[in-house]
């Protein structure tokens, strides 16, 4: 048995690969390095350079390595970019995912863990979001991911495949041992941008919208430490391998922070003050999205280890300092 990890050279995938090889799983990483890094991949994993949409390559890997499970992280991930370049997002996130799912079914793969997103909910009517809340994405990124969820559901029900759709909320932080972290070029993620500003890598940070209907006027998100996502993936795959039926699970802590609160935390933890300029709203942003993760906690007995904003920020800072020295 071996696991094919697409996008395993990226931010979240590289952390999960470390988690898998630590427990002696055989791992094959497939990544086209469009936003990932070869040296982020644990040396115990087999690395293959290539594209998820390359059906011949994927089919060959499934047969050659005896792949029984796929974890599919590979995607284009920037919400504002998806509004400017929707076709590219549907091509990479939906069309390539269909090719991968199809190759998986043909190759006899048993289980599929899919990186979905809170962006499938769009602007929910209540801040707290369970998996039963209607999905109404407000960006092509969110729609492209929701379409893949739907394909997976239909394809799985017509085959023996079982899947776990993991809807991540906002992922942040880094491996506490600093083996990997978020190295994304020109990152747009709030905590990464704020940490880079605190370290003088950027001149300042912009706050996109301060007139939202929230207590301080800025958007609220549920920030989850990347290592707590690692344990969610490992538990989800164990659950499927034990015969558990397909499932969709929110991955977040159940409490949110505003943009102002995040910036204050980065200033507090780094000990550095920096400029934060108020700007107009950014297209495609939801007001407030916080995970009801009861299902993840109950079904998989998942308990987070790093549910503390200052710890998340401290680990993100430590990784950024390491990158700065390279
Ligand atoms: N970072 C977040 O806050 C967040 C939140 C919700 C969901 N997600 C999802 O998690 C997954 C991983 O995100 P990330 O933050 O690690 O992004 P990332 O950009 O760091 O990782 C994506 C990886 O996929 C690779 N890739 C992209 N397209 C490919 C293709 N066609 N073939 C092969 N490799 C390809 C990239 O080179 C990269 O290594 C994505 O599916 C993303 O939508 C991320
Ligand atoms: O320089 C910045 C960056 C972000 N923000 C705001 O901070 C919040 C969070 O933004 P960001 O970190 O870009 O995350 P999201 O847009 O919420 O999207 C992230 O979280 C989603 C899940 O919720 C994932 O699917 C996406 O891949 C991931 O980019 C939003 O209100 C942004 O407007 C700023 O004000 N200034």
UniProtKB/TrEMBL annotation:
UniProt KW keywords: Carbohydrate metabolism, Isomerase, NAD
Matches recorded under SUPFAM superfamilies: NAD(P)-binding Rossmann-fold domains
Pfam families linked to this entry: Epimerase
Gene3D superfamilies xrefs: NAD(P)-binding Rossmann-like Domain, UDP-galactose 4-epimerase, domain 1
Listed EC numbers: 5.1.3.2
Record has Transmembrane helix as a keyword: no
GO molecular function: UDP-glucose 4-epimerase activity
Reaction(s) this enzyme catalyzes, per UniProt: UDP-alpha-D-glucose = UDP-alpha-D-galactose
Pathway(s) annotated for this protein in UniProt: Carbohydrate metabolism; galactose metabolism
Required cofactor names: NAD(+)
Classification via InterPro entries: Epimerase_deHydtase, NAD(P)-bd_dom_sf, UDP_G4E
Domain NAD-dependent epimerase/dehydratase: 3-252
Oligomer and partners: Homodimer.
Family the entry assigns: Belongs to the NAD(P)-dependent epimerase/dehydratase family.
Protein name in UniProt: UDP-glucose 4-epimerase
């Amino acid at each position: 048995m071996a696991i094919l990890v697409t996008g395993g050279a990226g931010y979240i995938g590289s952390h999960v690969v470390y988690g898998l090889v630590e427990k002696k799983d055989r791992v094959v990483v497939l990544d086209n390095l469009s936003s990932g890094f070869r040296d982020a991949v644990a040396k115990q994993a087999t690395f293959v350079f290539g594209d998820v949409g390359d059906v011949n390559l994927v089919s060959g890997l499934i047969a050659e390595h005896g792949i029984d499970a796929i974890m599919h992280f590979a995607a284009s991930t920037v919400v504002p970019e998806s509004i400017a370049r929707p076709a590219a997002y549907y091509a990479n996130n939906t069309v390539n995912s269909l090719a991968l799912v199809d190759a998986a079914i043909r190759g006899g793969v048993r289980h599929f863990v899919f990186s979905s997103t809170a962006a499938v909910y769009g602007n929910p009517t209540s801040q707290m979001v369970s998996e039963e809340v209607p999905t109404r994405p407000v960006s092509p990124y969110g729609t492209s991911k929701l379409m893949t969820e739907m394909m997976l559901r239909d394809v799985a029900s017509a085959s023996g495949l079982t899947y776990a759709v993991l809807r991540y909320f906002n992922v942040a932080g880094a491996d506490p041992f600093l083996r990997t972290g978020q190295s994304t070029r020109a990152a747009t993620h709030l905590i990464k941008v704020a940490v880079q500003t605190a370290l003088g890598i950027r001149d300042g940070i912009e706050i996109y919208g301060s007139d939202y209907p929230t207590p301080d006027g800025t958007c609220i998100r549920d920030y989850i430490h990347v290592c707590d996502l690692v344990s969610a993936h490992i538990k989800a795959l164990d659950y499927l391998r034990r015969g558990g039926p397909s499932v969709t699970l929110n991955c977040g802590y159940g409490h949110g922070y505003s943009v102002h609160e995040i910036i204050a935390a980065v200033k507090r933890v780094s000990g550095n003050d920096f400029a934060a300029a108020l700007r107009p709203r950014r297209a495609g942003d939801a007001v407030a999205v916080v995970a009801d993760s009861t299902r993840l906690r109950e079904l998989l007995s998942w308990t987070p280890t790093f549910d503390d904003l200052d710890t998340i920020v401290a680990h993100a800072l430590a990784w950024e300092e390491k990158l700065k020295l390279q």
